[in-house]
Design goal:
elongated; mainly alpha; about 80 residues; single chain; 3 helices; Methane Monooxygenase Hydroxylase, Chain G, domain 1
Length: about 80
């Protein structure tokens, strides 16, 4: 399944943001920051990665339906969605 350019750009943007957040978490750990602050940032990174995955699946679903019809790829996309859950 190939993704359209808009979906790819959006997913990359979300992942780069999460990448920056991860770097911030590493710095927080190195600086001995409060555990509660670190956990909040970890939760934010987790949500960002989840959103990137869901966007990827949504974009893939639209692409597959447009190219192959609704039944051709539904099972594959359901498996991908469940993998993220």
């Amino acid at each position: 399944m190939e993704l359209d350019e808009v979906t790819t750009v959006e997913v990359i943007k979300r992942l780069r943001r999460a990448e920056g957040q991860l770097g911030g978490i590493v710095r927080m750990l190195e600086e001995g920051r409060d555990c509660q602050d670190i956990v909040h940032q970890l939760a934010a990174v987790s949500r960002a990665v989840d959103k990137a995955g869901f966007r990827l699946i949504a974009g893939g679903f639209k692409q597959c339906v447009a190219e192959q019809g609704p039944e051709a790829s539904l099972e594959q996309l359901e498996k991908l969605f469940i993998t993220l859950a």
